[in-house]
Amino acid sequence: MMVERRPVLTFMTHALLILGIVIMLLPIYVAFVTSTQSIETLNSATQVIPMLPGHDFATNYQTALVGSSQYNIPPALLLLWNSFLMALAIAVGKIILALISAYAVVYFNFRFKMLFFWAIFLTLMLPVEVRIVPTYDIVINLGMLNTFAGLTLPLIASATATFMFRQFFMTIPRQYAEAAAIDGAGPVRFFIDVVLPLSKTNIVALFIVIFIYGWNQFLWPLIITSSDQSLHTIVMGLMQIADTLGQIPNWNFIMAEVMLATIIPVLIVVIMQRWFVKGLMETDK
Question: Which of 142, 178, 213, 268 shows a CA-CA span of 20 to 30 A to 154?
């Protein structure tokens, strides 16, 4: 069957794609350009935001990285490190807990198995605002306020990841488990040697999604580390810079930290994009 080419339709398709790219990249470009300007240029009432990079790139990014008490700027290096550790701990913890939970639900038979599973799943219907008050109370009672454990442990449980791994494990043929049992492999050996290798693309895909989820956390770190700035994250640092008490914000430093805050998530996605796409679209068996 011969495919008919329509130049007008092809042109419109490409034009829409280009327009979509411009719409998505323009805010990032404006943020980068703003991060290279001086305070005087941005605060000038007679000039709009420049569309070409300025000459203060090195100064602005150095100030953002090491911090400045004069401009109320926390050191971005510490904030980025805290955000990375928090996001990594949340992602690894969620995946490990979800893998074990889903494996138990699929491959073990015990009373009220499905009741426990649906109890986990129903937590998805509870908004964060409903769960955050009792969670905060538990953290206080356990003495984990202003600690890294209090920052990460309450965010590790994941009904979504458990459900997704359960659905994937159910697609693995039962003959694999039977063959492993005949060869003398127990549940732990079957999990490590068979289930985990088959799940690697799904694990990577979920890791990227959960890592970015942890990286973007704001409300919980704000509540749990309000009195300990050494545990603040990059998102909280942006709020601190923008909080100028009625004065004009230093948009060049704010945008410099915004650009710095995007580097690690972008690198994670770029490095793992091949596995990410396979994990979302293919079943690696």
Answer: 268
